[in-house]
Amino acid sequence: MPDPNPDPRTPDEAAQAAERFRADFAAVREQIGRAVVGHAEVVDGVLIALFAGGHVLLEGVPGIGKTLLVRTLSRALDLSFSRIQFTPDLMPADVTGTTVVVESEADGGGGGGRTRDFVFRPGPVFAQILLADEINRATPKTQSALLEAMQERSVTVAGTTHALPDPFFVLATQNPIEQEGTYPLPEAQLDRFFFKLLVGSSTRADLAEILDRTATGRITDVQRVLEGGAITAHQRLVRRVAIAPHVRDYAVRLVLATHPPTEAHRAEQARERFATPMVEKYVRLGASPRAAQALELGGKVAALLDGRAAVSVDDVRRVAPAALRHRIILNFEAEAEGVSTDAIVRNVLDTLPVSAA
């Protein structure tokens, strides 16, 4: 059976594929806008991560539409959807699934007895879109159940590895203000998220529109506009977008600029110093290589959306806050003085030269 979404082979086919990508992106964005009021940057960030093949962490206070955004996205895409409400008593098997013993009649019947078989019962992680609601309310043991799923796109239970469906997209939410009884995500798991997006409060106009939609009996009709095969084809197209050496080098230097110099490598780093005085003062650990991957892939999606076949420095800068803010670990001095990772990222973006010296 021929592939309904083949990769482009000629420049004309590539141009047509890019045009379909932009049309599909706009169609999904339009469907989400039927239910979600405002938060345009957050919506675009979620869709950029989806088409880049990454996962998203949404952070914001309760009642501002984080869960609604994820549910609406699942309604706009022809993908299987599952939700896990993370609580302190949630166990890893409640996420991944478990192996159970199933009794059945022996072949032939006639009093031949019963047989017992071990059967794997998949958990809610076996969905193409997974909503991990309030992920920081579960214990680290349960949070870690998502690590293999997010990175390897598979789950290992009782020594057997089970592949997850394709595409596989995790959207996790967390509340930044209610920290009592919560478990902050470990750095290893935060690094698995492609973007961390901050969902802020609504504007005056947005609040009025929310009331008009929800307090007047209006029915929101969200249509399915994109299926899994098209999404994976778009993800392959994104990786084929060109990036010039100097643009890739900017992304590399941007990541290195978040690293404070260490005593062991201070002499070596002095020859290529990228960290600013602010980074040296407040950062304990800089962004990982996954940050560079997120900068490049996110920049490729941004380039396609802008109708260009190659990534620009501005594309990398556009996605930098979402790609870096959760991968920078601050020291005690930063916490004491109220310095945020976003302030560090802004400082690096403002001071890092576009071209290497």
Describe this structure in words.
Helix content is 45%, strand content 18%. The chain is globular and about 80 Å long. A five-stranded parallel sheet has the order 3-6-9-1-10. Strand 4 (97-105) and strand 5 form a beta hairpin. The model has no long low-confidence stretch (mean pLDDT 86). It has two domains: 1-89 and 124-239, P-loop containing nucleotide triphosphate hydrolases (Rossmann fold, 3-Layer(aba) Sandwich), CATH 3.40.50.300; 241-357, Magnesium chelatase subunit I, C-Terminal domain (Helicase, Ruva Protein, domain 3), CATH 1.10.8.80. It has helices at residues 11-33, 40-52, 66-76, 92-96, 140-143, 145-152, 187-190, 204-214, 228-239, 245-256, 266-271, 277-282, 289-305, 313-324, 332-337, 341-351, and strands spanning 56-59, 77-78, 81-85, 97-105, 114-122, 129-133, 154-157, 160-163, 169-174, 195-198, 226-227, 242-243, 283-285, 310-311, 329-330. It has 357 residues and is of the alpha/beta class. Helix 10 (245-256) crosses helix 13.
